[in-house]
Write a structure and sequence with these properties.
Layout lengths: L1 E5 L8 H17 L7 H7 L3 H5 L6 H4 L7 H22 L1 H22 L11 H14 L4 E8 L2 E8 H17 L9 H21 L3 H7 L21
Antiparallel strand pairs: 1-2, 2-3
Helix pairs in contact: 1-5, 5-6, 5-7, 6-7, 6-9, 7-8, 7-9, 8-9
């Protein structure tokens, strides 16, 4: 399942979200072998857990968040950031959201390093930081409506579900991946899970200031402004 949009566009322009997406795209083009060709820069800025545990290449804790290993890698991360980042930036403010994003990325890196401190394979991607955004979104807007594109073999369907269903299933999948053989497929499941939990914890003070469950009562679990109305999707359902 891929989220393609929520029904709650932010009330103000999400400059930080847009800037983060732009920086990630620029770094991807610079370091892609078929574009900028600066592969050495990609290697130098990646995160190597074994290096960090030995006090080396510490800049990788931050720089790895802006590198990606392929088109689908960056496309997925930026899609999730675009869908969920704007409303969180709306609530936290531009600077607050930027600090939150970076802190979630650091927490995600810490979780992955703690899970395998001797790992020498480079870790790259904004997934951990974006997972934090998803965790914060879940805490503040659990009932926000999200349009999801589901692709099941030959069936293609767009449907709308509450954010807590989509994000909850995503988190459970990361936990399952962390403890199964899927953990050897090159995906940093622990980073995803760690970033997600960090996002919830770091958003908790804002949630409490807004009134905690009283905030949910006032907004019914949605962002605190009228939701957008979209026309019926034109993507056809493909049957056998």
């Amino acid at each position: 399942m891929f989220p393609i949009r929520d029904h709650n566009p932010s009330e103000r322009t999400p400059y930080v979200t847009i800037a983060l997406i732009a920086i990630n795209i620029v770094m991807f083009l610079l370091t892609a072998s078929w574009a900028g060709g600066m592969v050495r820069l990609w290697e130098d800025l990646a995160l190597y857990p074994v290096a960090v545990t030995n006090g080396a290449n510490l800049w990788g804790l931050v720089s790895h968040m802006f590198l990606h290993a392929g088109i689908f890698h960056i496309a997925g991360n930026m899609l999730f950031l675009w869908v969920f980042g704007d409303n969180l930036e709306d609530q936290m403010g531009h600077l607050g959201f930027l600090l939150f994003y970076l802190a979630c990325g650091l927490a995600a890196a810490g979780a992955q390093i703690a899970a395998n401190p001797s790992e020498g394979i480079p870790m790259v991607g904004a997934s951990g930081a974006v997972a934090g955004v998803m965790g914060g979104y879940l805490l503040l807007f659990p009932k926000a409506r999200v349009d999801v594109l589901a692709i099941i073999i030959i069936f293609i369907k767009v449907f709308t579900i509450p954010a807590w269903v989509m994000l909850g299933l995503w988190f459970l999948f990361q936990i399952f991946g962390s403890f199964s053989l899927m953990g050897s497929d090159g995906v940093a499941y622990w980073a995803h899970a760690g970033g997600f939990l960090a996002g919830i914890v770091l958003t908790a003070p804002l949630f409490l200031r807004r009134g905690a469950t009283g905030f949910w009562d006032r907004t019914e679990g949605h962002p605190p402004h009228p939701e957008a109305k979209y026309p019926r999707s034109r993507i056809p359902q493909v049957r056998r």
